[in-house]
Specification:
Distance between the termini: 36 Å
Largest sheet: 9 strands, mixed
Bound molecules: ligand TTJ
Structural class: alpha+beta
Radius of gyration: 29 Å
CATH class of the largest domain: Alpha Beta
Helix content: 25-40%
Strand content: 15-25%
Number of helices: 21
CATH topology of the largest domain: Heat Shock Protein 90
CATH superfamily of the largest domain: Histidine kinase-like ATPase, C-terminal domain
Length: 652
């Protein structure tokens, strides 16, 4: 990045920045009193947030064209070091404060160049509260600035200056190094960093900032490892990465970039042979999960360009309908990244870009690039249109399928699947649908349940892997149809979570590897085709016991599968060994081994059971997990299932 500027330009730009530009706004005391107000929480999330507050400053320096390399390390004592090769935070004395600028950066709330305007600043975006907040929340923070031949150093304790900035030696490099130890008085839950969590975001930052070299190293004993990222392709590499396990229908992802009114836009996209749509959008490196104007501009344009092209090529006839947005997005993987000098974040989670001028800019830029692509690649253009037509046919088929699935209504009960043992209540807030693997377990569940509010749908054997099946096959699959009909939610574009006939969909499978596999297949189905149910928190796993501790003929205690199952079993055995007869272990290999009464009391009775709600925390990670589980690669899949067969709470 830095090499893109010549030295004259560098001098020009350096002039614009001097200490007086850094604005002083507020005192630091408030931060330690109410840390949550500044970093969201003091939990694991808040802890990791500290790293991004610091790293964002180095990213800004890279975006300005002055830094090309950022190194993040988790030190042996769980402190963090961030090193960049930028210009170094200014060390000159500020007029207003009489203190070195660097000291102000770390000791005054909201200090930093970011409010002065000029250039994109990722810090100051979604959470950007500044490095002074990190300082306030650290037992120790030290900064070293390498600049103009000297190395400068200053240290702070809980945000307070320990001694004046001093020169600690000569140097021939330039850049900023910040090291901090999060304060355990603040981060009471944990002060242990998660390498994987940092790695995921750092990789994302590398994709989003083409050419940037960024690394993350874990120096803690036993965990020593390092990941370095550098993508010359930027978001093109990101699209390729997202499509790694998929089949692309053309070789190189489309890419376009442009700038207008200081707003820069980059788009990359590629179609795959599958059905899944992944459109990721970012504003100033922040994932805009809720979309916004950049995403809208892209979507609208995609739909328009494809329909115009299809009509021009006579692939859609005059009397036929246009393809919908959803049709043309089937199988699409796209990344949109905009950088805006003053991004407005809206929405519930402040992850929706609001700046209205961005949709037009994005649309114009994309329209030009995509039209050119279609002109130059008519064969691919035809495939894209045909894919959209295919999707539209499936959508209409889904609509027909939906017309066959009805809400519960005494007159239409005959439409419900024959295998469903429905409950008598039709209040979805009270009712539960258990999907049970196998007829015998289904039988026990049917007689053990409370028929007032619990319905049972037995599913036979391994269910269809929707990741590998065509839409026709999915819609034609008996088990899947039963599930959709029973839930009453409709299918595909017509899916309507508000029509759910049950607000609990409980997946009840054996606590063994096969059960885990079936559970995963059902989850994949939910994830791909009933996602709003997961989002609404309606999907659960039942947690049948793995052991029963029996004294005589009576089961005294049940042990649930989990990492501590053996320990818990031992404790239970000891607890029940006081009496005359010795406790016996009953191991449940399947639900079928429990009688109806046992199944009720261990797994179904709301008073006594444990059920785990399925969470959809990070769609992208879940994709990767499912792709690993469901892709062609059998070895990692088997390993994963075996490792996780005991965990009932798969955090999706
Ligand atoms: C500001 O204007 C003059 C030249 O340098 C600019 C600057 O501050 N650059 C900069 C800051 N590079 N890196 C940082 C930085 C790095 C870390 C790790 C932490 C912080 C708070 C800032």
């Amino acid at each position: 990045m830095a090499e893109e500027r010549n030295s004259e330009e560098l001098r020009e730009l350096a002039k614009e920045y001097d200490a007086s530009q850094i604005q002083v706004l507020e005192g630091l005391e408030a931060v330690r009193k109410r840390p949550g107000m500044y970093i969201g929480s003091t939990s694991k999330e808040g802890l990791h947030h500290l790293v991004w507050e610091i790293v964002d400053n180095s990213i800004d320096e890279a975006l300005a064209g002055f830094a090309s390399k950022i190194e993040v390390s988790i030190e042996e004592d769980d402190s963090i070091t961030v090193v960049d090769d930028g210009r170094g935070i200014p060390i000159d004395i500020q007029e207003k404060t009489g203190r070195p600028a660097v000291e102000t950066v770390f000791t005054v709330l909201h200090a930093g160049g970011k409010f002065g305007g000029g250039g994109y600043k990722v810090s100051g975006g979604l959470h950007g509260v500044g490095s002074s907040v990190v300082n306030a929340l650290s037992t120790v923070l030290d900064v070293t600035v390498h600049k103009e031949g000297k190395a400068y150093y200053q240290e702070y304790h809980q945000g307070q200056v320990v001694e004046d900035l001093k020169i600690i030696g000569d140097t021939d490099r330039h850049g900023t190094t910040v090291h901090f130890i999060p304060d355990p008085e603040i981060f009471t839950e944990t002060t242990v960093f998660e390498f994987e969590k940092l790695k995921t975001r750092i990789r994302e930052l590398a994709f989003l900032n083409r050419g940037l070299k960024i690394s993350i190293e874990d120096k803690r004993s036993e965990k020593k490892q390092k990941s370095e990222y550098h993508f010359e392709g930027g978001i093109v590499s990101y699209v390729e990465y997202l499509n790694k396990k998929k089949t692309a229908i053309f070789d190189t992802p489309i890419f376009t970039e442009g700038e207008m009114d200081n707003i820069s836009v980059e788009i990359s996209m590629q179609y795959t042979s599958g059905y899944e749509t992944t459109v990721l959008s970012f504003a100033n490196n922040i994932n805009t999960h809720e979309g916004g104007t950049h995403e809208n501009g892209f979507r609208t344009t995609l739909t328009r360009v494809i329909n115009d092209y299809a009509r021009k090529q006579k692939l859609i006839k005059e009397n036929e309908d246009n393809l919908t947005g959803e049709d043309v997005r089937e199988g699409l993987t796209a990344v949109i990244s905009v950088k805006h000098p003053d991004p407005q974040f809206e929405g519930q989670t402040k992850t929706k870009l609001g700046n209205s001028e961005v949709s037009g800019i994005t649309g114009r830029l994309f329209s030009e690039a995509f039209n050119k692509f279609l002109l130059e690649n008519p064969k691919v253009g035809r495939i894209i249109v045909e894919k959209g037509i295919q999707a539209s046919k499936a959508r209409l088929a889904a609509k027909r399928a939906r017309e066959m699935t009805r809400r519960k209504n005494p007159l239409e009960l005959s439409n419900l699947p024959g295998k469903l043992a429905d409950c008598s209540s039709n209040d979805p807030f009270q009712t539960e649908l258990f999907i049970v693997e196998g007829d015998s377990a289904g039988g026990s569940a049917k007689s053990g349940r409370n028929r007032e509010f619990q319905a049972i749908l037995p599913i036979r054997g391994k269910i269809l892997n929707v990741e590998k099946a065509t839409m026709e096959k999915i819609l034609g699959n008996e088990e899947i149809r039963s599930l959709f009909t029973a839930m009453g939610t409709g299918f595909g574009a017509d899916f309507d979570v508000s029509k759910a006939r049950y607000h609990k969909l409980v997946i009840m499978t054996d606590a063994d590897v096969d059960g885990a596999h079936i559970r995963t297949l059902l989850l994949t189905l939910c994830y791909r085709y009933m996602r709003p149910l997961i989002e609404a928190g309606y999907v659960y796993f039942a947690m049948p016991p793995i052991y029963g501790v029996k004294v005589g003929n009576e089961i005294k205690e049940y042990i649930q599968p989990g990492p501590d199952q053996e320990k818990e079993l031992k404790i239970a055995l000891e607890k029940h060994s006081e009496g005359k007869s010795k406790p016996m272990i009953q191991r449940y290999k399947g639900l079928g081994e429990m009688d109806d009464h046992q199944l009720w009391e261990t797994t179904m009775d709301p008073e006594r059971r444990t059920i785990a709600r399925v969470k959809l925390e990070d769609a992208e990670d879940a994709n990767t997990v499912f792709e690993m589980l469901m892709g062609d690669d059998v070895a990692p899949r088997k390993e994963f299932i075996e490792e996780n067969a005991h965990y009932a709470t798969l955090d999706l």
